Fold:
Amino acid sequence: MKKLRFKDYEKFLWLCEELQIKYIPIPEYTRRIPKRTAERNTIRKAALALRKEKLATFQKQLEEQRKVFNQHKEKEMEFIGKELADLALDEKSPIVQVYQALKAGRVELEEHVHNPPGRRRMILEKKFELHEKRLREKQLEAAS
Structure:
């Protein structure tokens, strides 16, 4: 077929059409792939397949969790709607109005969240206490 293709291209096309074949020429240059490269390629393909598989299972888990979350969200939104209706507020009320209604009608919310003092502040307070204690001792000694 190769020789016929070079000699008479029209006959070559006619013969391919009659035999219903597709001619694929042999590549002129073939490169030998080293064993190490072939191993790397197979490992890379296996790793990619494993990654795709894990991603697919993770996406399935997320979908299941999303269904549960959406059900929980619907229940919570219904509860919030009922609470707003009880307080005679609509969903687009300003946050200040909602806060005042909650404070007046239901729950007493904390005005300020207590933040514990940091390490540096605690050390400074202890130093200050020791300093005051020493001053009082000196004043007592001076008075005696």
Notes: The chain is about 75% helix and 0% strand.
